[in-house]
Specification:
Strand content: 15-25%
Number of domains: 1
Helix content: 40-55%
Structural class: alpha/beta
Oligomer: single chain
CATH class: Alpha Beta
CATH superfamily: Aldehyde Dehydrogenase, Chain A, domain 1
Number of strands: 13
Length: 296
């Protein structure tokens, strides 16, 4: 049989939920096109049920991940960077297949590795920067420290599909949160391959969950789910912001909006970790009993 008679087998990219690679429960897929507009692959079109299952997985994984030491979380993120370094050629090829030039693909993969290393370094340092000992008038020590929020729903940028995904995920998980992220709709391939990398890394199952599909189909579910603690959107339109802010008010989840440009100078900074943390303040008495003068 000649090559002309052969039917090409196109890959169907699955989602990544709870450490597994399920197909969408609806059976619906959408076409992923290459840089020339020709069919490249099929990707799952995630539904509300897929999102709910992702939130359950993220919530189940949150306690153990949040309880890990900051140093350990930094080690895990650094390990992801090491693995991405060894698979640069594969990710560059996938970015190029969707229309990115060779030079731009090489730069994006390298920037993605650097961004993982950057946040891995901040893992055990941001607490010292943002925590404080507060002056009070009574006989107490007053401490403020940060704690992870919980489950974060993320909309990754449409462009810079690999760097955008990593830029959205990493500050959340470095701080001890678990995430559900919707990958770039037009260029989801690198995101799903990144999930395959995560599945063989040290990241516990459920800490990162990656969906593919249309933002318009999922935006109301991401922002209204009552077990989501924050909704972070990169490149939100005015209409998207209105929907998210309205739905987020139901359970007082944070609605956070960022520029879709993840290559700018401000695209990586410790304040992106800080915004996905809660501040816990503790009062500790200095003296107990005026007569004894006993102290802790």
């Amino acid at each position: 049989m000649s090559n002309k008679d052969r039917i090409e087998v196109l890959k169907t990219y699955k989602m990544y939920i709870g450490g597994k690679f399920p197909r969408t429960e609806s059976g619906h897929y959408y076409k992923v096109l290459d840089g020339k507009g020709e069919l490249l692959a099929n990707a799952c079109s995630a539904t509300r049920k897929d999102f709910r299952e992702s939130v359950k997985a993220a919530r189940s994984a949150f306690g153990k991940w949040a309880g890990a030491s900051a140093y350990n979380r930094g080690q895990v993120v650094y390990r992801i960077a090491e693995m991405l370094e060894t698979r640069k050629a594969q990710f560059e090829a996938e970015l190029m297949s969707q229309g990115t030039t060779k030079a731009a693909a090489e730069k994006e993969v390298q920037s993605s590795i650097d961004r993982l290393v950057y946040y891995a370094g901040w893992s055990d340092k941001f607490q010292q920067i943002f925590s404080s000992v507060n002056p009070v008038a009574s006989s107490h020590f007053n401490f403020s420290m940060l704690q992870p929020m919980g489950v974060i729903a993320l909309f990754a940028p449409e462009k810079s599909s690999l760097l955008g995904l990593i830029s959205a995920i990493t500050p959340a998980i470095v701080g001890g949160n678990s995430v559900v992220v919707l990958a770039s709709e037009k260029s989801p391939l690198a995101a799903v391959t990144f999930a395959e990398l995560l599945a063989t890394s040290d990241v516990p199952c459920g800490v990162v969950n990656i969906l593919t599909g249309k933002r318009s189909d999922l935006i109301s579910h991401f922002s209204s789910h009552m077990d989501v603690n924050a909704c972070v959107t990169y490149g939100a339109s005015s209409a998207d912001k209105k929907v998210i802010q309205h739905n987020a008010a139901d359970n007082m989840k944070r609605a956070i909006f960022h520029s879709a440009n993840v290559t700018s100078a401000n695209a990586a900074n410790p304040y992106l970790i800080r915004e996905l943390q809660e501040t816990k303040t503790t009062w500790h008495p200095i003296e107990v009993g005026q007569a004894s003068g006993a102290a802790y």
